[in-house]
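Exercise 7b. Backbone tokens:
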């Protein structure tokens, strides 16, 4: 059962928004805010539960960042809807009491962090993740300064904050490939979604030598058996991660978006919506490895059938933990707000974690998700025993 579930209805448009706090740790919780037409409280609840597993799974004793409880927010609105920004503003106003006291949030599907920052600031909320700063050892301002510095870093035309999530997904996919005996040079990957997560995952898989043969976005699938030019495609995206088709190369084929998961490739990266791998389409999958950049990408029965067929699924709360973990590592001062320190910490933590999950799954005879859940629960217990006894009443006071 969730700790708190809130349903909000916008009095001007009738659009619904939701916040689910799955659990609190030290009185705090964290999780992203998504904007998608059709989002429901059930989806937000699933995502909040996932956050409770994601928060502790990277915890290493000695880290300054100690895991929060899991939470999530969602607004049932198309990000392309011209009213989406004002709806986000009214939602921020409505949930401000939670943001001020116990819920740290940030970008997710359909919403960019800079939009959240601008809209929340206009509602008198200096940071969407402000409550997390109340437990930063050297004070909230030091955490805010580190976060601002980190988000100002640009890596080859893309902001570091937009890259770390996909860098983490690519790291876990590469570790799973190694575990399964696949070499990058002879491995092909397909990515569904080309926004923050999909775009950066494709970039770092390609940089590692993997051939990215398919990319799907909201407008369909682009396929090239010889490999797509990921760097060029990244620069043609609009603000919602949609590729400009006029910039495709001659031999890039356009196909139906639903075919992404049936392509002949060893690695699949779902990096768009939730619930995309289902009982109905699971038999079409040819891949050996699925690394879930998207939260709750695979339905339970479909995952069981993949497991039975020997397909390795790196579960969402391991594959995509990079953004959340990086944010807190920076804010708490576990790493410097630089490209080098960020990528080094992500590699050092997520590669070995993926191997540990897959080895534990084999040793315990369970699916990787269950093995990762056991590891997360064990780490949560260690972190729980280390909480400071007091918290600061005002998250913005030094
Ligand atoms: N951004 C993060 O920090 C973060 C962290 C962890 C997990 N995630 C998860 O990753 C997923 C993607 O998030 P994001 O932030 O990259 O989103 P985003 O909004 O930046 O990008 C979404 C991408 O999905 C594409 N898309 C939309 N509808 C589609 C459709 N019907 N078929 C194929 N593609 C479609 C869009 O064109 C875009 O390329 C979500 O499930 C989110 O929960 C995001």
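Sequence design result:
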């Amino acid at each position: 059962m969730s700790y708190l579930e809130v349903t909000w209805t916008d009095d001007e448009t009738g659009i619904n928004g939701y916040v689910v706090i799955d659990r609190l740790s030290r009185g705090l919780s964290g999780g992203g805010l998504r904007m998608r037409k059709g989002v429901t409280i059930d989806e937000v609840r699933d995502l909040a539960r996932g956050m409770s597993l994601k928060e502790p799974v990277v915890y290493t004793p000695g880290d300054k960042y100690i895991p929060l409880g899991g939470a999530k927010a969602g607004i049932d609105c198309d990000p392309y809807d011209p009213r989406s920004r004002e709806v986000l503003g009214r939602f921020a106003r409505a949930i401000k009491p939670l943001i001020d006291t116990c819920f740290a949030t940030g970008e997710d599907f359909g919403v960019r962090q800079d939009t959240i920052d601008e809209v929340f600031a206009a509602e008198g909320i200096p940071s969407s993740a402000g409550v997390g700063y109340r437990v930063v050892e050297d004070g909230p301002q030091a955490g805010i300064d580190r976060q601002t510095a980190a988000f100002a870093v640009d890596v080859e035309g893309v902001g570091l904050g937009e890259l770390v999530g996909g860098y983490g997904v690519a790291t876990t996919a590469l570790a799973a490939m190694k575990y399964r005996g696949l070499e990058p040079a002879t491995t092909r990957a397909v990515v569904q979604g080309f926004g923050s997560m999909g775009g950066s995952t494709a970039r770092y898989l390609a940089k590692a030598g993997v051939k990215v043969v398919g990319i799907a976005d909201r407008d369909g699938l682009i396929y090239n058996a010889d490999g797509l030019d990921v760097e060029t495609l990244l620069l043609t995206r609009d603000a919602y991660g949609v590729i400009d088709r006029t910039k495709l190369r001659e031999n890039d084929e356009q196909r139906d978006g639903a075919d992404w998961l049936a392509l002949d490739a060893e690695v699949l990266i779902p990096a768009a919506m939730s619930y995309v791998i289902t009982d109905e389409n699971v038999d079409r999958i040819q891949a050996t490895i699925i690394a879930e950049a998207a939260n709750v990408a695979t339905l339970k029965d479909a995952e069981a059938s993949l497991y039975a067929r020997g397909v390795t699924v790196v579960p969402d709360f391991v594959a995509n933990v990079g953004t959340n973990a990086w944010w807190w590592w920076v804010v708490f001062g576990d790493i410097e707000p630089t490209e080098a320190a960020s990528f080094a910490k992500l590699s050092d933590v997520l590669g070995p974690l993926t191997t540990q999950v897959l080895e534990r799954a084999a040793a315990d005879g369970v699916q990787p998700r269950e093995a990762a859940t056991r590891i997360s629960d064990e780490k949560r217990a260690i972190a729980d025993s280390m909480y400071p006894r007091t918290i600061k009443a005002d998250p913005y006071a030094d």
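Instructor comment: The pocket of nicotinamide-adenine-dinucleotide is lined by residues 34, 107-110, 165, 192-198, 216-218, 240-242, 257, 271-272, 274, 293-295, 320, 323 (CB under 6 Å). The mean pLDDT is 94.
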